[in-house]
Amino acid sequence: MDLIAPLIVATLRISAPYLWASLGGWYSERSGIVNLALEGMLLHGALACVLAAHACEQAGASGAVAAWAGIAAAILAGALTGALHAAACVAAKGDQITSGIAINLLAAGVTKLVLTLVFGSASNSARIAGLEPWAIPGLAHWGVTRVLFCTPLVLFAAVAVAGSEFVARRTRFGLRLHAAGEMPRAVQAAGVSVAGLRWRAVLLGGALAGVGGAWLALDQHQFTAGISNGRGFIALAALIFGKWTPRGAAAACLLFGAAEAMQIQLQAHGTGIPTQFVQMLPYVVTLVALAGAIGRAHPPAALGRADE
Amino acid sequence: MNRRAAWVAAIVAPALAVLAALATGALLAAALGRNPFEIYALLGRETFGSWYGLGQVLFKATTLAATGLAAAMAFRAGLFNVGAEGQLYLGGLAAAVAALTLPPACPAVLAIPVTLVAAAAAGAAWAGVAGVLRARLGVHEVIATILLNFIAMALGSWILVTHFAQFETLHTAEIPAAARWARLESVWPAFRGAPLNGAAWLVLVLSGACVVLLWHTRWGFEVRAVGASEKAARAAGIPVRRRLFEAMAVSGALAGLAASNFVQGYKYYFEDGFTAEAGFRGLAVALLARSHPLGIVPAAILFGALDRGGFVLSQKVPKEFADILQALVLLFVVVLQPGLRRFMERRQSLEGRE
Questions:
Q1: B2, B32, B141, B143, best to mutate vs chain A, most A CBs in 10 Å
Q2: B332-347 b/e with 16+ CB inside 10 Å = b?
Q3: By the CB < 8 Å criterion, does A273 face chain B?
Q4: Is B317 helix (H, G, I), strand (E, B) or coil?
Q5: Which residue in B has a C-alpha nearest to residue A233's C-alpha?
Q6: Under a CB-based contact definition with an 8 Å cutoff, are residues A56 and A65 in contact?
Q7: What tens-digit pLDDT sequence spans chain B (354 residues)?
Q8: How close B123 comes to chain A (CA, Å)?
């Protein structure tokens, strides 16, 4: 048990940002808009979180208040990044892949620029207090329940997955979202605005991915240049791996998180296997899983088509 | 009619996008408390204003053009090769290893091609893994290439550290003189000091070869047919899976060849981290050029100039200023292109009616 519990804890912690970003991608892609901008949304979310939290701490707020202000700022920054993507892809009907790549490049530049201007360093921000787990009696003392039930952004990630699954299956918005991604003309014929649906989906997706950025910043107690480190792309991979469903994407994120947690444990224990091979582990596991019995994924039929 | 509209949109939109990006950048420079005219004058002077600056720009453009061609080749087959970074990395390693194992007496006419073939083969093999996964097992190439990037870096770094790294460094020994490109300054002294080298000619040849391959061979036609519609291509009897795999391998070969500029033309060794995201930025170059091999050269020169710009402007504004300009150019192309195209089509249909 002594080996399993820390592994579960590490898996959940590592999976959290993937979960948020992946869910964010789900809303966007279900509505028919390819979201390669997740990486940029994570970056903007993380920076906004640190800026807001730092400002609050300077003003004398407690660590927790500052952290929640940071999360709110991250949601806003993520949604604004989503708005940029939606403006390019939905309003201007531009190429969605190019827009995503451009937003990622922009986010990489803007975050480093702001980092330099505000904190006078090209590599990292000032430290912030972060968000302490809740001290719920009976749950807070054991690692697994502590990370799952007392760590707000992990708990809420689980809630968001269940909530998105509910939205997908049981709500009118979810049904229309699905239709917008599969056959936008049908949505149009029913008198519902496809563009309106897509705008809402991309904004909501950006907000969720922004929370993933906030998690990174709060977990590391600072913003560092390139803090997202390819996580947006892995989250997108998880979404495709999970066949464009929230539960599938969540499972893929957990699998990837578990492989990464295992890698860290292996490195810590020193097994004699060269570090480079240990580092490869999460990626090889995912690739093998994909190539194995998982089968073909079917993307939303209208995904990436701007003109419809 | 649609074709002409598409052509005009493909040329006018990037030009307008550059202007729009520069205008936005001017606002940013002003917000940073700098005189935008002063900034742009410096940028112009240090890039296209001197032979040395131009040499630096073209040197940086060479790598970007090759990775841009790699991305474009995949796009034409309807594939999205996000793995150029890993293919470039392994291409560089293979090039250095091949050049280092050549017999000392090997003449340049043999050493350079052997090194190039090694780079291309390594890139093609690595992209080929993603190609097989996509063509045979239906694994989405975006995921496969992203994952393969991480694996390539780890694998390459292990090979480097255990077999080829010089003592206390992360690079190999220098490759023999016979496997090196000549610097352009040796025939054109005006470029003195700039690392522009023979790889630039290689990239020009490659972009011409891509045009011939894609539009003047049956293979290219079939690849483009697959890219336009897999279903229709299959119905027409084109071996879709095979073409998908081959297009991915060719794309990887081009990404691998991009390493030649650094390994054979600049530092003369393979170094961990030499890729500097050139693989990813190749995507941006290809997208700016709308995946046309001939458009890729000017697009790469523009991005190369902004790369150099980041360096020369760093005394005035943070060096991210130029990165932001690159992103803005791309973003404005995305926003402007569809509208411009519709405008052109509308105008032409009006002309047609008269």
A1: B143
A2: bbbbbbbebbeebbee
A3: no
A4: coil
A5: B146
A6: yes
A7: 467 777 777 788 889 999 999 999 999 999 999 999 999 999 999 999 999 999 999 999 999 999 999 999 999 999 999 899 999 999 999 999 999 999 988 999 999 999 999 999 999 999 999 999 998 888 888 889 988 999 999 999 999 999 999 988 999 999 999 999 999 999 999 999 999 999 999 999 999 999 999 999 999 999 999 999 999 999 999 999 999 999 999 999 999 999 999 999 999 999 999 998 899 899 989 988 989 999 999 999 999 999 999 889 988 888 899 999 999 999 999 998 888 878 877 877 777 654
A8: 19
Q: Which of A98, A230, A274 is opposite residue B334, by nearest beta carbon?
A: A98
Beta bridge partners of B171: B271
Q: Which of residues 77-106 of B touch A (CB under 8 A)?
A: 80, 82
Task: Collect all residues of chain A within an 8 Å Cβ-Cβ radius of residue B146.
Answer: 230, 233-234, 237
At which residue do the structure tokens 């391998």 appear? B249
Q: Does B144 touch chain A (CB under 8 A)?
A: yes
DSSP assignment string, A81-103: HHHHHHIIIIIS---HHHHHHHH
- List b or e across B149-164, with b for residues whose CB sees 16 or more CB atoms inside 10 angstroms: bbbbbbbbbbbbeeeb
Per the DSSP assignment, residues forming a β-bridge with B271 are B171
Asked if B146 reaches chain A (Cβ–Cβ under 8 Å), the answer is yes
| Amino acid letter for position A119 | F
Tokens 């036609």 map to which residue? B221
Residues B29, B317: contact at Cβ < 8 Å? yes
A84 to chain B: which residues are within 8 Å by CB? 331
Residues in chain A with CB shorter than 8 Å from the CB of B283 are 101
**Do B140 and A240 lie within an 8 Å CB cutoff?**
yes
* The one-letter amino acid at A194: V
Distance from the Cα of B115 to chain A's closest Cα (Å) equals: 26
The whole-model pTM stands at 0.91
Longest dimension (CA), chain B: 76
